Amino acid sequence: MSRAVEETNRAMLRARDAMDRAYAQPLDIPSLARIAHVSEAHFIRTFRATFGETPHRYLQRRRVERAMDLLLNTGRDVTDICTAVGFGSLGTFSRTFRQIVGESPTDYRRRRTAPAAPVPSCFTKAWTRPSSFG
């Protein structure tokens, strides 16, 4: 790997790390390009070539991943989670979540936190009968 390619990769990693750390903060292309020490257009092109998606899509995906965790592990409502992960609009959050996950945030939570199915009665009766070995 040439020195130039190595430097470019490091610059893109710096910007991606900044996105990972501050995913809930307002981030824009000019500030991310400054972190990578490149122009805005070059940053977008190079980020996509390096990571396979645009910086905007990467940031959306990181925010949705964090929202998925919050939906399953907290009792916070969807609107609160939306703002906590950095979305400014519930509509944008819901649309983006559905595009990435394949279902709405509410459906995602409901399907994964549904109570366990009850144990069939035939199984429980077998375990509660008096033993004939005693």
Q: Any chance you could write out the topology, listing elements then pairs?
A:
Elements: H1 3-21, H2 29-36, H3 40-51, H4 55-73, H5 78-84, H6 90-101, H7 105-112, H8 121-128
Helix pairs in contact: 1-2, 2-3, 4-7
Outline the structure in words:
There is one protein chain. By secondary structure, this protein is mainly alpha-helical. It has 2 domains: about 50 residues; about 60 residues, Arc Repressor Mutant, subunit A. It is built from 8 helices and no strands. α2 packs across α3. The longest helix has 19 residues. It is elongated, with a radius of gyration of 23 Å.
Task: Quickly list its features.
2 domains; Arc Repressor Mutant, subunit A; elongated
Report on the biggest sheet: none
Using the coordinates above, name the CATH class of the largest domain.
Mainly Alpha
How much is the average pLDDT? 89
Q: Tell me which oligomeric state these chains represent.
A: single chain
Radius of gyration: 23 Å
The percent of residues in helical segments reads 55-70%
Q: Which CATH-level-2 architecture of the largest domain?
A: Orthogonal Bundle
Low-confidence stretches: none
Strand-residue proportion: under 5%
So what's the overall shape? elongated
The helix tally amounts to 8
CATH superfamily placement of the largest domain = Homeodomain-like
How many domains comprise the coordinates?
Answer: 2
Structural class: mainly alpha
Number of E-state strands? 0
SSE sequence, one letter per element: HHHHHHHH
CATH topology of the largest domain: Arc Repressor Mutant, subunit A
Distance between the termini: 75 Å
